[in-house]
Amino acid sequence: MSVLETYNNRPRRLWVRILIFIIVLILVLWSADGITYKGIASKGSEVAYGIVYGLTHPDLNLLFDTSTSGVFYLTAQTVAIAILGTVFGALLAIPFSFLASENIVPKWLALLFRALILLIRTIPSLVWALVWIRVTGPGAFCGVVTQSVCSIGMISKMYITAIEDLDTGVLESMDASGCTTFQKIRCGILPQLSANFVSTAIYRFDINLKDATTLGIVGAGGIGAALVQSISSRRWSMVGSFLLALIVLVLIIEYCSTKIRAKLARGTVE
Fold this sequence. Notes:
Elements (H helix, E strand, L loop, with lengths): L2 H6 L5 H20 L10 H13 L3 H4 L7 H29 L7 H16 L2 H12 L3 H25 L3 H9 L4 H35 L8 H9 L3 H31 L4
Helix pairs in contact: 3-12, 5-6, 5-8, 5-10, 6-8, 7-8, 8-10, 9-10, 10-12, 11-12
């Protein structure tokens, strides 16, 4: 059969495309109906100008202050919260993901743990922070606990995908060779999962670093609380100092994480 004949015999599904377009159009119109634009707030331009002014005229004394209220300390605390939250979350996600994988455990047990992981992912990080701050009190420890719990949901989902894509032929060969369970895990499972697990943890660290700033708003430590207080009091030079520190920090972390993920994925650093 020629190419032209194949093209002419293609499935005719124009009505399906038209139906999808109509459904999408209805959803867009329905969503737009609930949004009312009331213009820019009277102080909006003032805040925008203040942020631009702060970025171009940062408070250098605050920027290089090494006390507990300085930019350096608060930024380091934010990074520490993100690191510990990611490490604990990644470690706790390992048993969750194995117990939620249908090729490892019975289906009913996997569904039970998947429901638990879904429950964790459903609750936003700010809500978790508000819950844990009542238990641990305000401070960096609350941020670490919150990020650890939130990380379990996302990391477990990625881990489950990697576990279910395991090459079972390797495990069958090792089983035929008389390998013990520990040997199969050590030499058959971990080499297949380690790169994927590390890459997922690094990706989650990028997210946690940004979330750590947001969690500071509710008192979970980090630079977020100081940034919000500076914006509320219109101290734009201080705002500029905090924002510059965050921008530089995110750029450095993004560069390093990209290089590490490239090394894990292709074995070379670009």
